[in-house]
Amino acid sequence: MIKRNIALFSLVMMFLQAAELFGYPNGITGRTLKTSKNGCGGCHGSSATSGVLVTLTGPDTVVLNQSTTFILTISGGPALGSGCDIAAKYGSLSQISSSLKISGGELTQVANTAMSGGSVTFEFSYVYSGVQAIDSLYATGLSTNSNGGSSGDNWNWATNKRIVIVTQNPPPATPVLLTPANQTNDQPVSLQLMWHSVPSAATYHVQLATDSLFTAIVINDSALVDTLKLASSLLNNTPYYWHVRAKNTGGTSAWSGTWKFTTITTMPDPVILIQPANGTQFNVDTVIFSWNRTNPNVLKYWFEIASDSVFAASQIDSNLTDTVITVRNLTQQPYWWRVRAYNNAGWGTYSEIRHFTISSTGVGDEGILTYNIKLNQNYPNPFNPNTAIRFEISKTSFVALKVYDVLGQEIATLVDENRVAGQYQVDFDGSKLPSGVYFYRLQVVVSSSTSEKIFAETKKLLLMK
Question: Where do the domains of the chain lie, and which CATH numbers do they carry?
């Protein structure tokens, strides 16, 4: 009997030594400040280490009988593996992360859990169904070196998480407006009203009016789930006032502060052309174009030149901030040109259309003068969301095929490289674009030993979703 007891004692001591050497890789509970002052001491160092940061995050207020998600984050220390113990004073816990398990009403790791980038997170849910008004969450976090032993591991306590228990959701906080900024002028007649998100909000209520008392309502939308609202077809030169409030099952917040903005006075006036005069003939391949500045508050100009009077095949520069542009490498043929202006209200109407003729350029390179390009209409057109664009070039040259929106902004480059003579087809995908009118422009640069010329053609395509 004595020998048997000695053998049993030896087995127990071996187990305790192994536990002290290797800790509890499959988790252990009862190590938080709820029930312990030792934490992970004894297995992984005798005292907490400030180099290990253990944080409990989640709402400060939870609703009675409603499951709420919290996260435990561990970082610092050896930062290769990790373990944890999570406890609640009154409420019930359950694992969300598969790396957690429930043991004795507390949560601990299933196994030594690897850290990524020096940290690890454990997600879990909390619910309370009692009569207490205040509860607390406790946690202890372990950072290991994953060497199979406990030497060199570090641990620390988390700051206890205080939770207020309420019988229903509290009303959301008051939203904070974002854009358009308060007291701004020259705003476009179509714009987005935007505000900051409120974490507990389910829906938002936005109002836009032409008076600060909101008696002349323009927009009154109380079912928004996003934090923006499109305001379109606004009047020019008009002050507008707007505010937002948030709502959830607990109630409705107060209205935000009221912000004011004023729309642009009007769309730009038509542009008055200066030079070249209508009907001018040139014996050079370079022409300077100019026009008068127009109002109000013009931001840029759209210059368009074409080899036909209906501008079916045209070159467009829609980002000019000056009122002068020089066009080079024009060929012997008639041309038509026009200009329009842009401000925050949109594009104004076109100027008059003028024409001129290049009768001689002095360029003797017949190879360039006889160069031809052909840009076909895309098919299908209208399209959704894909269409094919075909073009043909008669000589090896540098080819650029690009797509623009109606504002002249480049939205896609389909070709931008040297191509040999031949016929080509390029597919265009408009799945990420809104419905509307777009333009595609083929520009070909042809070089010879003595000169270089640019040939271009533009066509319209229609995306309908």
Answer: 23-166 (2.60.40.680), 177-263 (2.60.40.10), 273-358 (2.60.40.10), 366-463 (2.60.40.2550)
